[in-house]
Amino acid sequence: MAVRDVLVIVPALNEEESLPALLDEVRRVAPWAGLLVVDDGSLDRTSEVVRGRGVPVLRHAVNLGVGAALQTGFRYAIERGFSIGVQLDADGQHDPGDLEALVTPVREGRCDVAIGSRYVTRTRYRTPVTRRLGMLLFSGVVRLALGQRITDTTSGYRAYGRRVMEVCQHDFPRDFPDAPLLIALGRRGFRFLEVPVQMREREAGRSFYTLGKSLYYPYKNMLASLMALLRAPTDEERRS
Amino acid sequence: MEFLSRAQVVTAACAILLALLVLDLVRRRRLSEEYSLLWVVSTVVVAVLGFSTPLLKAITHALGILYEASTVFFFGLAFATAMLLFLSVKLSRLGLENLTLTRELAFLRHEIESLRAERPTSDGENA
Question: Which residue of B lies nearest to A67 if distances are taken between CA atoms?
Fold first, then answer.
């Protein structure tokens, strides 16, 4: 992997404690990948910590949501000619050791989006019952909409091909890029592949998913899934 | 001509006061013309209904409502709902504009930092 065609995008919110170890680990296990941190309006020293390690950082002046942070990363990837963008959570849950396994099927053209799944093989990751139920529900919704079984619809550990990133430039969920995104992409003919990955416990910091959001999540995702089925591509998407 | 009830007079007077307040806010540039339209229309409709007893009775009868006062409240609520929906749409658009601007700012800041890092001391500035 001589050419840097992969950009690892790390959306981060108040992750000054987790990031140093994570960035070092990514550089160690995936020296072939570019790195970008999108600081989504952190109130701590996230940006300074990242800059101190010589990693590019794009800082949102206000918090926009994990989806919007990822979209910012996609734009950076497209502008700088990367052909694959990988989302890696800043809290240390995603194991950078799986990066190559995630990138390979996209690079080989076997899929457009590779989804790192916790449930293809057994991992140490413990999922709360409510979240597990939500995943079962939205896995069913995706299956109904696309006719394809995706076990881990909420996994944020994904590799996106360039065409997908270009489409996501114009339409992307701001908060939860989960089932509705998969339905919207599937309807545009993009192919998915689940890749078994390890998920770890959070290193430090707080998750994007707070209690309030967990109550809003099922409503929003159900409505957005329905809209993804009904919506026609936007003019920008047709042009891109 | 039928006499106006006290409730009608109070309703109509409140509507006129609100219309005057809206117009004054527009005059002082605290409210844009665009946003004032729904307010002015709603106050005028409520004021007309308040002052015109035959019209109020006719509309009440046509809508199958039992009391005239309910008709006034119905129109008031309908306008309030329309205004809330209008504002929700505007807020959604503002949110999208805010997102775009925040992202542009992030890219511009990154560009500036990159340029500064490339030219640390060319014009006497610190890196």
Answer: B99
* pTM listed for this prediction: 0.79
Q: Do A72 and B106 touch (CB under 8 A)?
A: yes
pLDDT tens digits in sequence order for chain B, 127 residues long: 455 678 778 888 888 898 899 999 988 989 888 888 888 888 888 888 878 888 888 999 999 999 888 888 888 889 889 889 999 999 999 998 999 999 999 999 999 988 988 876 655 444 3
Of the CA atoms within 13 Å of residue A39, those in its CB half-sphere come to 26
With b for 16 or more beta-carbon neighbours within 10 A and e for fewer, the A21-32 pattern comes to: ebbeebbeebee
Q: How far apart are CA A4 and CA A26, in angstroms?
A: 14
Contacts A–B by Cβ distance under 8 A: 35
Q: Are strands A158-161 and A34-40 parallel, antiparallel or unpaired?
A: unpaired
Identify whether the C-beta of residue B36 lies closer than 8 Å to the C-beta of residue B22: yes
Sheet holding A57-60, edge to edge: A57-60, A34-40, A6-12, A84-87, A158-161, A113-117, A192-196
ipTM of model over 0.85: no
Residue in A9, A39, A40, A58 to test binding to B, most B beta-carbons within 10 Å = A58
Quote the CA–CA distance of A110 and A99 in Å, as a whole number: 16
Tokens at residue A186, please? Answer: 């599937």
